[in-house]
Write a structure and sequence with these properties.
The protein contains ten helices and twelve strands. It has 310 residues and is of the alpha/beta class. It is globular and about 55 Å long. The structure holds iron/sulfur cluster (SF4).
């Protein structure tokens, strides 16, 4: 059996010889035998297996056994594996087998699933998977209908149930740039955190259509996500004008300290997940920093937020 491996992961494993500016700290693998999802922003939607890309990433294929051998040979190059999947209920048995095989290597293993697969998420956690990432992506019923072509009324309550049972092991993937206002986006983040989930934040990568968010908007969403997850602020205590986040309830030295040297602007998600170049090309400014920020990068990220003092 073959498995797709992200280009950056394949370099770390020695399967591809190429230069790498920032190495992934999680091994990203892709199991997709034809996704039936219709997400507007995905190059693999509607069963397009031929696309070699998912987000901005190229995923060459290698033999699974070889990949597992490289992942488990000391010194182990990764302390987490993330199995990304296309949505296809017909391949769930095969997916379960593969996920369990990876978890049995002893490396903490995450799996990404569709919001329609909450039952499978619980099952995989009970079979030894470490974390599950759920691609909710859109933050409101309207953007969910428009960009995911799925039924919010069915999926959101099922997701809340999953979060109530297993919240600390669930990362909800949210994409900023699908038309949700900052206010609607922050409100959704707060609801997920209040139900014990965590957020894995992405900027829209316009591979099909649409446009990437402004850096200022994205920096504000990162700051809100980080401070909210760390229980430093709540949605109700923030100020918004025309849907834009204008003031946080903390400011000055307190805010700078709470942003923890720029950790607020790094990739968010499962432990050790840094997803380099998912949202940007090498050489472009990072939406999600895949590594610690320099002092200058931290100052400029704070400036980018254009947040006013409360
Ligand atoms: S946060 Fe990272 S490791 Fe976790 S499921 Fe999402 S992509 Fe995978």
């Amino acid at each position: 059996m073959n498995i797709r491996v992200s280009y950056g992961t394949a370099i770390v494993l020695g399967l591809i010889k190429a230069r790498q500016d920032v190495a992934p700290t999680t091994a990203y693998l892709l199991f997709d035998s034809g996704c039936i999802g219709q997400c507007s922003f995905c190059s693999r939607a509607n069963g397009n297996e031929r696309s070699k890309k998912l987000s901005r990433i190229i995923w060459p294929e290698f033999e699974l056994l070889k990949v597992i051998e490289l992942l488990t040979t000391p010194p182990q190059p990764f302390s987490r594996v993330c199995l990304q999947t296309g949505y296809n209920p017909d391949n769930e048995t095969e997916l379960k087998k593969l996920a369990v095989t990876l978890a049995q290597t002893g490396i903490a293993t995450s799996v990404t699933l569709s919001p329609s697969q909450t039952a499978l998420a619980s099952e995989l956690l009970s079979l030894g998977l470490d974390h599950v990432g759920i691609g909710l992506d859109a933050a409101s019923p309207a953007s969910y209908a428009e960009h995911k072509k799925k039924d919010w009324e069915q999926d959101w309550p099922a997701l809340l149930n999953l979060l109530k049972q297993n919240g600390e092991k669930i990362e909800i993937h949210l994409i900023f740039g699908l038309g949700d206002s900052e206010e609607a986006f922050c409100q959704r983040i707060q609801k997920i955190i209040d139900t014990n989930g965590k957020i894995s934040l992405f900027a829209l990568t316009p591979v099909n259509s649409g446009k990437a968010p402004e850096m200022a908007e994205y920096r504000r969403m990162q700051a809100f996500r980080f401070l909210c997850e760390n229980r430093r602020i709540r949605f109700e205590d923030c100020k918004f004008a025309d849907g834009r986040l204008t003031n946080l309830p903390i400011s000055g030295y307190e805010l700078i300290t709470a942003l923890e040297n720029g950790n607020a602007f790094r990739t968010s998600g499962c432990g050790n997940c840094n997803r380099p170049y998912y949202n940007e090309r090498p050489g472009q400014a990072f939406f999600n920093y895949p590594r610690p920020l320099s002092v200058a990068e931290f100052s400029s990220a704070i400036e980018d937020t254009h947040l006013q003092n409360s």
